[in-house]
Write a structure and sequence with these properties.
CATH superfamily of the largest domain: Phosphoenolpyruvate-binding domains
Strand content: 15-25%
CATH class of the largest domain: Alpha Beta
Strand order of the largest sheet: 2-12-11-4-5-6-7-3
Mean pLDDT: 89
Number of helices: 22
Largest sheet: 8 strands, mixed
Low-confidence stretches: 162-169
Radius of gyration: 24 Å
Number of domains: 3
Helix content: 40-55%
Distance between the termini: 30 Å
Number of strands: 21
């Protein structure tokens, strides 16, 4: 069995009748099958789901603001975006089915409907079925089959046991061999397997699926929902006292998050990435806010806070935000931001240590492109860790490393390694910057033509580009370890759960891969398969 075959067994699937015809087709962004009523607003998704309805969230594309609606929905359908878009990445992390980039449909969110290319109109409340494995969207209800492997990973089915008390069940025909294969893979693999997890629930699920730690905890996901208003206040702060008050409140909330995640992963490493995306992602859309303020001014109802917020949004607006003020740059430019996050993490770990637990903290500084950046922020981290130790009387050991995301970082890895305890390769950004691709724009626009023309065999956002991006990774690994022997190396981008990319990671000598919780079993199996040729060679050598 391969990792791809195992992935097909892990998610619900449709038992579609032969006459079922899809009304739209998009990208199979996150596998699985879901049936529910179409909803076009996240608040409605949350409300209807709380009332017991099954819903499919339909959006042109999703943003961090949509997270609560995505959590409430059975599945997600977007008309724009690709397999590495926000909707796809978040859905895979939650194990939720998602179809992205369904350009056959035109979403009218204000009108609460979407229209297909053939003229079919689907209104809010209409029943639809979304197949994240094939990318197809159907009207009405398609029967869903739930494979027992899902229950096995969730812990409700044990291999060799079923309700009748015997061992010859249909479900054990699947669960038993999967269990045996994974156990064998765990015995022979060299690569560690961690999970990308941002909540206690995700951390607990990852552990059930066999993760040996968290390789990527994205702290920006802790600033969503009601907490986003605190970020607005931080951006609008006109003086140190106001800024410090907001940072204190954010720190209190993050400390609680970190304590739960570290407790869920007790005894295993948790790599916490400091806030990475541009601040504008936490603020209202520039166009929408401009219109709102203009209308309010025309009617004489404009509020000072909205005007100030608009000024702040304009000030932070960037033409290419993913290449702008984000990652390590935020830590250098925004006073107190690094201290707040590191303090929250250190205080959470200290509290757990006092309770007799074993939190293992790693602090990851994102988007470094020069060793000087890392040195500046590392010094901030070390100063804060020392301050918390003095205040609490508890020493919190914490590795401090960086996320290698830019070509320059890979090519100057020898310099950067002098200030890093570990490297983690976030392979999505190197793919964008090495190829000059925007992952949100290119997958639907010209990738099909590129695939047909043989420019590449697979999307480089799905399968790691070995000759280009892979070479950057190999150079960084070699030069980093030449400077710092024993430098710990991992991959935490979406490629961490892709079978061919896992084989490359093994061959390149990295220490672990990290992927969404639902891809952890696939990574465990493929890491074992990658090690089998080496094990066979060792056995051959021993027999001579």
């Amino acid at each position: 069995m391969t990792g791809d075959q195992l992935a097909q067994l892990m998610f619900p699937r449709f038992h579609a009748p032969s006459d079922a015809r899809p009304v739209a087709t998009g990208m199979n962004a996150s596998p699985g099958a879901a049936v529910g009523i179409a909803v076009f607003d996240c608040a409605d998704a949350v409300r209807r789901a709380a009332a017991g309805e099954r819903v499919i969230l339909v959006r042109r594309e999703t943003t961090p603001d949509d997270l609560e609606g995505m959590i409430a929905a059975e599945g997600i359908l977007t008309s724009h975006g690709g397999r590495t878009s926000h909707a796809a990445v978040v859905a895979r992390g939650m194990g939720k089915c998602c179809v992205c980039g369904a350009e056959d449909i035109t979403v009218d969110a204000p009108g609460r409907k979407f229209r297909t290319s053939t003229g079919t109109v689907v209104s809010e409340g209409d029943l639809i079925s979304v197949d994240g494995t094939s990318g197809k969207v159907y009207l009405d209800r398609i029967p869903v089959e739930n494979p027992p492997v899902v229950d096995y990973f969730e812990g409700s089915v044990q291999p060799g046991r079923h309700e009748g008390g015997g061992t010859d069940s249909d479900e054990d025909d699947i669960v038993g061999p999967v269990h045996t294969l994974l156990q064998h893979g765990d015995r022979v693999r060299r690569l560690g397997v961690r999970a990308n997890a941002d909540t206690p629930r995700d951390a607990e699920r990852a552990r059930r699926f066999g993760a040996e730690g968290i390789g990527l905890c994205r702290t920006e996901h802790m600033f969503l929902g009601e907490r986003r208003l605190l970020v607005e206040r931080l951006v609008l702060a006109q003086d140190d006292a106001t800024r410090d008050a907001v940072l204190t409140e954010l720190g209190r909330l993050q400390r609680g998050d970190f304590e739960e995640i570290l407790a869920a992963m007790d005894g295993s490493p948790v790599t916490v990435r400091l806030i990475d995306p541009p601040l504008h992602e936490f603020l209202p859309d520039l166009t929408e806010l401009s219109v709102r303020v203009a209308v309010a001014e025309a009617t004489g109802t404009a509020e000072t806070q909205d005007r100030e917020l608009l000024q702040a949004v304009r000030r932070l607006h960037e033409q290419n935000p993913m290449l702008g003020l984000r990652g390590v740059r935020l830590g250098i430019v925004v006073p107190g931001l690094v201290e707040m996050q590191v303090r929250a993490l250190a205080e959470a770990a200290a509290a757990l240590l006092r309770r007799g637990l074993d939190p293992r903290v790693e602090i990851m500084i994102p988007l470094v492109s020069a060793v000087q950046e890392l040195e500046i922020v590392r010094q901030q981290c070390e100063h804060t860790l020392a301050a918390v130790e003095q205040e609490t009387g508890v020493h919190v050991p914490a590795g401090i490393g960086t996320m290698i995301e830019l070509p320059r970082a890979a090519l100057t890895a020898g310099e950067i390694a002098t200030a890093a305890d570990f490297f983690s390769f976030g392979t999505n950004d190197p793919t964008q910057t090495a190829w000059g691709f925007s992952r949100d724009d290119v997958e639907r626009s010209f990738f099909p033509r590129y695939l047909d023309a043989g420019v590449f065999g697979d999307s480089p956002f799905e399968v790691l580009d070995r000759s280009g991006v892979g070479r950057l990774v190999s150079v960084a690994c070699r030069e980093g370890r030449e400077v710092r022997e024993g430098l710990h190396l991992g991959v935490c981008g979406e490629h961490g759960g892709n079978p061919p990319s896992i084989h490359f990671t093994h061959a390149a000598g990295l220490d672990y891969v990290s992927c969404s919780p639902y891809r952890v079993p696939v990574a465990r199996l493929e890491a074992g398969r990658a090690a089998v040729p080496e094990k066979a060679g060792e056995l051959s050598a021993d027999s001579r």
